[in-house]
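As a next step, the fold was encoded as C-alpha cells, giving this record:
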Amino acid sequence: MSIKILCFLGLLLVGVCWAADAQDSLRIYHTLDSIRKLPNDTAKVSSLIRAGKQYGRYFDNHKSENQFWQEALPLAHKLHSARSLALLYNELGTAKRNKSQYLVAEDYHEKAIKYAEDANDTLMMCLSFNNTGVDCRRQDKLQQAFDYHLRALQLAEKINDTRNICVATNSIGNIQLTAENFEDAVRHFDRALKLEGDSHNDLGVAINLGNLGYAYQGQNKLDLAIQYYHRSLVVNQKIDNPTGMAICYNALGAAYKEKKDYATAMEFLQKALVVNGKVDDKIHVAESYLNIGKLLSAQNKHDEARKYMQQSIDLSIFWNFKSMLIEAYKALAADYKASGDFRRSLDAADKSLLYKDSILNEKSAMALKQMQTIYEVDRKDNQIKTLEHDKTVGELKTKRNVVFIFALAGFLLMAIIGGFFYIRHRNLEANKQTLLLELKSLRSQMNPHFIFNSLSSIHRYIWSNNQEEASDYLTKFSRLMRLILDNTQHTFVTLNKELESLRLYLDLESLRCNGIFEYNIRIGTDINDEEVLIPPMILQPYVENAIWHGLVHKHDDKGRLDVDIVLKDRSLVCTITDNGIGRQKAMEIKEKKGKGHNSVGMKVTEGRIDLIRKINNKEARVMVTDLENTAGQPAGTMVTIILPAEFIF
C-alpha cells in the first residue's frame, strides 16, 4: 500500500511539475509575442534583455539558449547600439560562466568590453572588465585576471562606483591569495571589507571576513584566522546563509586541526555536516565527510576515518563530483599508507589519478566544444552584419533613383539661386576691394604726415641742442622710421611691433619736450602681444594729440600719459589717458594763436577706423571723455579706441 501511495505521489509531483512547466512556456510565449509587436528600437532591445533575465532559469533548466537574448542580439547589431550590445554580451557571458563554460564566457565578456568602449560608457566598462577577470580566474589565468580587475578598479575609482570597486578589490585579493601573496591579499580584503561595510552589504562583509581568515591562515597566524572565521560565521548566521555557515564551519575545522585541537575541529566539522542539510549543493556535504575523515586519520582512527571518506566517495559518485573524488581517493590512499596497507593505498591512488585524467579529458573536450561555440557565435555575428549590409545596400539603391530626381530638380534650383548669389557676391567683393584700396590709401598717408612732423621736431631740436644730443635723437628717429616703413606695408601688425614703434616715438617726444611728461604702457595679462594683431600707426595720432594739446601746456606738475590695452568680448580696447589741460583749454589756446593747420593724422585715423568697421562688419569706434577732478575742474582727457580682436592663429 505504501509503495502505491509513493508511486501515486511521484506521479502527482510529475504532473504538477509538468503543469507548472507548461504554464511557464505559455507565459514566455505571450511575453515574447507582445515584445515582438514593439517598434524596432533600443527600448525593444532593453525589454528583450529584461525578459531574458526574468526567465533565465527556465532556459537553464531546459538546457536551451535564451530565446529573448537570441532575438535581441541581431536587433542590437542592426541598430548599431553599442551600449545595448555591451549589456547583452555581459548577460550572455555570465550565463555561460554559470554553466562552467568559461572560454565562451570570456569571449562574450571581451565583446562586451569592446562595445562598452565604443559607447564610452565607463560604468559598463567596469562591469565588463570585472566579468572578464572572473572568467580568467576560473581558468587559472591569474595574470590576465589581475590585469582585467585592475583596469576595472581604476575606472570604478574614477567614477566612484562602490559596487565595482568592491568586486575588483575582492577579486584581486583572491588572486593574491591563490598566488600565496598573503600580505597583498590581506590589504585588498581589508579594503573590500570596509567598502562592503559602508554599503551595508552583509553578504559581502561575510565573504571578505572569511577571505581574511584564509589569508591569515596562509601566514600561519591561526588564532587571527580563527577570529575572522568566527566573525564571518556570525554575519552568515545573521543573514541565514547556510552555504556561508557551512564554509565557515569547515574552515574552522581545518584551522583547529592545524592547531592539533582535534576535539574542537571535530565539533565544527559536525556542525558543518548538520547545516549542509539546508544547502542545495551536495558538494558541501561531501566536503564535510571528507574533512571529518582526514581529521580522524590524523588521529590514527583509520577504520572510522575510512567510513567518512567512503561516504564522501559514495556521495561524489552519485552526484558525479569528480574533483571531490580525486581528493577523497587521495586522502584514502594516504590513510592506507599510514596504516601500512600499501596495496590498497596504491589502488586508491590509481583511482585518484583515473578521475584526474577523466577531468583533464573532459576539460579538453569542453574547451574544444567551447571553441566551436565561439566560432559559431562569430560566424553568426558576421552573417548578421552581412545581411544588414546587403539590406542597407538594397535600401540605398531604392532611394538612389528618388534622390537622383530630387537632386536634378535641386540642381536647377540651386543654379538659379547660385547665380543670384554669385552676382551679389561679386558686387560685394567689388565694394570691399574699393574700401580696402581706400583704407590702403589712408594708411599710406600716415607715413609722410608723421615724417613731416618728426623732421620739424628734429629741426627745432638741432637748433636748441648740441650736436651730440641731436645725433642721438636722429639715431632713434631712423630706427622709428624703419619700423614705420616696415609696419605700414601691412594691413595688420603684431601688437609687440606696434608698441615698440610707439615707445620709440614717446622717447623722442620726451627728449624733444625736455622730459615734461612720463609715460606707461600696460597690456592685459591675458594678451599674448606676439599673437594679437592691430592696424599699424592706429594709436600714434591720439598719443601725439595728447602730448601737444594736453601735456605741453601743463605747468603745475609733471605730465603723465597712460596707454592701456585689454581684450574684452572679442574686442581690443585701447585707452589713452593724459592728465593734461583738457580739450576746452586746448581749444582756447588754439584760438588765441589763430587758425592753424588741421590735424591730418586724426582725420586719417578716424577714416581708417570707420573703414575697418565697414569691412569687418564688427564694432570699431573711438570715444573721447573729458576728465575732471573732485572740484569739477578739467583734469585731462581719455580716448578709448575699440577695434575687432584679430589673431595670427
User: Anything to note?
Assistant: The chain has a mean pLDDT of 82.
